[in-house]
Amino acid sequence: MVALEQFYTALIAVLLLIALGVTVPVLGRIVRDGLERRRKRQAGELERYTEDEEYDRAARTLRPDDDPAANGRVTCRECGTRNDPAFTYCRRCTTPL
């Protein structure tokens, strides 16, 4: 008869092998994609930095309703993201506030 501890140890080992078998192909695709992007950047086929479609990093001016004292938020002058007043750096672009 197999001891309960041995059964649990074998079960954990099998589950770890299954998890490893699932993650290795995914990690391989991530590495291949990164190497392909690096090759394209070096060949000039891809821009070094691509802009996020959701936000434009161009400097924005503050509107009167963006006053930190009025709404308790601090708006980043670089990207326009609203941050908590306790933040030292913008949560989006990491520019000092």
From TrEMBL:
Stretches assigned to coiled coil: none
Sequence ranges assigned to domain DUF7577 in this UniProt record: 72-97
Pfam family, one: DUF7577
Region (Disordered): 42-73
Top-level taxon in the UniProt lineage: Archaea
InterPro entries: DUF7577
Keyword field: Membrane, Transmembrane, Transmembrane helix
Ranges annotated as biased composition (Basic and acidic residues): 56-66
Transmembrane segments: 6-31
Protein name: Zinc ribbon domain-containing protein
Organism (species): Natrinema salsiterrestre
